[in-house]
Design brief:
6 strands; mainly alpha; 468 residues; single chain; two-stranded antiparallel sheet; two-stranded antiparallel ribbon
Length: 468
């Protein structure tokens, strides 16, 4: 099919389904924590605006959470269909980690999600807040286990190989807390919070452009801009530390990301742009800053850096994709920082809710978190190639013995169904966001929040708050 073999089609299928899936957990992790903060502020202050925003975003969370669960279940089947050899080889390690995610995170989320969605009238505000908090914690626990499993594939540790050639655990703590896991967990959770803040900020900015006096959009926009202001610089620092860890454990990936085909003995440049030519083994039309690559990666402008010329060609990843996706991710990260700083400037000037330029900038940045998450995932996973377990198990040796037409037909079916179903879901989410929150906002349970909870609200015054 299209001149691709079964391995390439299997990779394309996993990449396609994963690209759809990853945006929903990233949004759900951040939005669950945001909902917990909103409900806590309502219980603390009694202000109606917070519970109105809670119910407004709860409806959006319910849809996004459901879409994430469905897309995740579909994706997991591919381990048995397209990657059965991989599942057999790494099952004794990856299987328990995935099981821990189900037993701890998924059961916790499932147990309290119904109370969170429909239980405010039935259980009271404080117990309901506990349910919201448990769902938020559950999303973070889920990220913990999923990233532990994926990080082990990037930097395997604590394993042994049995007589059947399977990877088994020799020391579970080393498996779980493998060398790249802490860096990747922090980077992903911060990315989820930034993604959510950008969506919340874009929705608030959209409504403020039409009416800068609406209390709900004012509060959500202020909170979102504080998050962007505080988290964006932390994320840049976390990304830098993650890059240093990757250099230590996956140097070939860094070579591809930086476009370093050739070794540099007296300091490597930081290439801003260029055209990776794998056949020629060089970065054409390169635009770079001398010595800066070594300064960032080695903290010395004259430190030597090895290039892909030191790696056998059969171990090269596809260079062009991680080279460009890395730049997309970094570029968007600095735009997020610019948005946060711009909002801080307008807040200081007293124009946070009146600045049309800031609001348009925030609206334009609404999808940026999703794009950055996808770009970062592609950088990580494609940069790991040609291995599924870095340095130990090659992708070509991980695939099921299937013919290309069988994999291609299922890929085509996924494409058709996903674009129909998820287009409808995303359009529904956009319709929910297009309407501003209003006094007496009702959640999925269609109950009146302020009357039900038995709290007399204060006046609603705006405040400044692994693709294989």
């Amino acid at each position: 099919m299209f001149g691709l073999d079964a391995v390439d089609l299997g990779r394309a299928q996993f990449a396609f389904t994963m690209t759809f899936h990853i945006v929903f957990p990233a949004f759900s992790i951040g939005l669950a924590s945001y909902l917990a903060v909103l409900e806590a502020l309502w219980l603390w202050t009694g202000r109606e605006v917070f519970i109105n925003l809670f119910h407004y975003w709860l409806k959006i969370f319910a849809v996004a959470f459901g879409m994430g669960v469905v897309s995740g279940i579909v994706m997991s089947y591919q381990f048995g269909t397209n990657w059965s050899v991989f599942a057999d080889k790494v099952g004794p390690v990856i299987g328990p980690l995935m099981a821990y995610e189900v037993l701890t995170a998924f059961f916790l989320e499932a147990g309290f999600l119904g109370v969170m969605l429909f239980g405010l009238k039935r259980v009271g505000p404080r117990l309901h807040f506990l349910a919201t908090l448990m769902v938020a914690i559950g999303t973070l626990i889920s990220a913990f286990w999923i990233l532990s499993a994926n990080s082990w594939m990037q930097t395997p540790a604590g394993y042994a190989v049995n007589a059947e050639g399977q990877f088994v655990s020799a020391y579970w703590l080393k498996v779980i807390f493998n060398p790249s896991f802490p860096y990747r967990l922090v980077h992903m959770v911060l990315a989820a919070y930034l993604t959510t803040s950008l969506v919340v900020g874009a929705v608030g900015a959209f409504h403020l452009l039409h009416n800068p006096h609406l209390p709900g959009p004012r509060v959500m926009f202020s909170m979102a801009m504080w998050m962007a202001t505080l988290v964006a610089p932390i994320q840049i620092l976390a990304g830098d530390q993650h890059g240093l860890n990757t250099l230590a454990h996956q140097p070939t990936k860094i070579m591809a990301m930086e476009g370093h085909f050739e070794s540099h003995q007296d300091g490597a440049p930081l290439y801003l742009f260029g055209w990776p030519d794998e056949a020629a083994g060089k970065l054409k039309y390169a635009v770079g800053i001398p010595k800066l690559g070594s300064l960032i990666l080695k903290h010395s402008p004259d430190a030597p850096l090895a290039g892909l010329d030191t790696v056998p060609r059969e171990n090269w990843p596809p260079v062009a994709i991680p080279f460009w996706t890395f730049r997309i991710m970094v570029g968007l990260g600095f735009l997020m920082l610019a948005l946060g700083l711009f909002s801080l400037w307008e807040r200081w000037r007293g124009r946070l809710y009146q600045s049309a330029l800031l609001h348009r900038f925030a609206i334009a940045m609404g999808p940026a978190g999703f794009v950055a998450v996808i770009a970062g995932w592609m950088t990580t996973e494609i940069g790991r190639q040609p291995f599924t377990v870095y340095g130990l198990l090659r992708t070509a040796d991980s695939a099921s013995p299937l013919a290309a037409p069988a994999v291609g037909s299922s890929l085509l079916a996924f494409i058709i169904v996903y674009f129909i179903v998820y287009a409808a879901g995303i359009l529904y989410l956009l319709r929910l966001m297009a309407a501003p929150p209003h006094p007496g906002e009702k959640g999925p349970s269609t109950e009146s929040p302020t009357r039900t909870a038995g709290i007399t609200p204060a006046p609603s015054v705006p405040t400044g708050v692994g693709a294989t």
